[in-house]
Amino acid sequence: LKLCRSLKASEKIRAVPVIIASRLSGIQDKENAFQAGCYDVITKPYASSELRARINNCLLNQKHIKSLEQRNFLQKIIDGVNDGLMVINRDYTIAYANKAALDTYGHKRLEPTMTCYEVLYAQNAPCSGKDVVCPLKKLIKSKTFEKFEHTYRDSNNRNRLIETSCSPIVD
After folding, report:
1. pLDDT score, position 61
2. Residue 146: helix, strand or coil by DSSP?
3. d(C-alpha 101, C-alpha 109), whole Å
């Protein structure tokens, strides 16, 4: 536990997860280990497969934490843009939307399954029809910057005309 506390006190390696392997199996022993900053405790004797599984869980958790931190950082950046900004996936789901975009279209927050056609047009399916151009389909096809004028329904169910600038993000 002293080593774990020492590692966690060091700013350079504080984020490195520590798994303690110990013969101590009491609840209080485990609580003390967690209070010292360890990520997990495994009781000796243990199977190597159990240790591998715990290490894999630890690494996977660290990866998820890093991903959430990056997503939150990106969200802060796009929320700093005054104009509405959305990142729309090929399946029409909205990956990111800043506060200005959500306010414009009358939403408080972005749900993971929200689509551009639901948010922008209050529809249940992608844009289609004889005289209707789906901005996303056109952008995917052209792979270049595009400007569109489109009508959307605001939070008071009124039609509003808006100009949208779109750029593809190409891998």
Report:
1. 94
2. strand
3. 10
**pLDDT per residue as tens digits for the range 100-145:** 988 888 888 888 899 988 888 778 888 877 777 788 888 888 888 8
CA–CA distance, 17 with 54 (Å, rounded to integer): 11
Listed as own residue / partner, the contacts of 49-55 with beta carbons closer than 8 Å and 24 or more positions apart are: 51/19, 51/21, 54/19, 55/19
Q: Answer for the pair 133, 149: CB distance below 8 angstroms, yes or no.
A: no
Show Cβ contacts of residue 13 under 8 Å, excluding neighbours closer than 6 positions.
7
Give the DSSP letter of residue 53. Answer: H
Distance CA 70, CA 83 (A): 22
Rounded-to-integer distance, Cα 96 and Cα 78, Å: 8
pLDDT (tens digit per residue) in 83-99? 888 889 989 999 989 99
Residue 24 pLDDT exceeds 70: yes
Query: Are the C-beta atoms of residues 94 and 87 closer than 8 Å to each other?
Result: yes
pTM score of the predicted model: 0.64
Cα(7)–Cα(38) distance, integer angstroms: 10
